[in-house]
Specification:
Rossmann fold, six-stranded parallel β-sheet, two-stranded antiparallel ribbon, globular, 11 helices, single chain, binds thiamine diphosphate, 8 strands, about 325 residues
Length: about 325
Amino acid sequence: MTESELNKQLYKKIYTIRMAEEKIREIYPLDVMKTPVHLSIGEESVIAGVCQALTQKDQVYGTYRSHALFIAKEGDMDAFFAELYGKHSGVAKGKAGSMHLSSPESGFMASSAVVASIIPVAVGAAFAVKYKREDCVVAVFFGDGATEEGVFWESLNVSCLKNLPILFVCEDNELAIHAHISDRQAYTIPEAVKPFGIHVYSDKTTDPSEIYTIAQKAVREIRKTGKPFFLHLKYHRYLEHVGINEDYCHGYRCKEDYTEWYGADPVKIQRDKLLAIGISEGEIRSVENAADRSIEESVQKAAEAPFSDTCELFEDIYA
Ligand SMILES: Cc1ncc(C[n+]2csc(CCOP(=O)(O)OP(=O)(O)O)c2C)c(N)n1
Ligand SMILES: [Mg+2]
């Protein structure tokens, strides 16, 4: 793929993720989406860059904050919005909502609302991949807060002990709900994981193509050696932990933090990059218009779609 094609693809992804979540912010007050929403506005580069380095066959696992992961790995906007509306045409027939998105056909295997609980599931999947000698990498996404759970360390230990083909992606926004990392952790994440003998790379960049390059190296290393790799990537959560509002007024962080990070906003960075490599304003607008249209159409379809029938209530579940 040419550099220009790659950068256009990355822009399409992060722009679509950003605008889909902005659309959720617009609609949410109407109370038609019966699901809590954990938005990742400000974080788009991490997911877009890492997913760009994965193939369709590679597996990803996420958290309750996984809209971006679904859009980047699956991309079916109709199924995405219908799920948030709780409709039958949703990716899980409206039974999962925002916090349990998945699409195993596209490699987005599962997400969980219980902090860190998806990590051992991903490690188990990586063990199965190794055991069955499949050509596949497993990537698991989780926050800085998840490293405070014992199961994170147990999972890391098993992956390193058994040399499993897994990419740990720690999305570090320095917050667990309203608690700052300096009030919670006596360790620094990259330093604390190194003694397990795992490859570690830590960065604060919000540039999607830089994250793509980092992730590509990590994924190549995993494919070559069969061993785990740990990416520690920082980002700033622009909005409150759950919901659609800004929350710089609660005293646990200040607006200056936002101003600083907004200077390196992922969507702005990637748009400027397209202009710098010679892609015209018109061409960029046509990418944006296509994404805006697809979001608009998917929302319209979701609003008009029927709910699942009550007789389906106990189908597709473990009981
Ligand atoms: C086991 C468990 N404990 C507590 C919670 C409540 N809770 C939900 S999100 C969250 C913060 C997690 O922070 P982090 O892992 O950094 O992810 P972020 O929300 O910042 O993306 C907590 C404590 C939970 N869902 N599960
Ligand atoms: Mg966090």
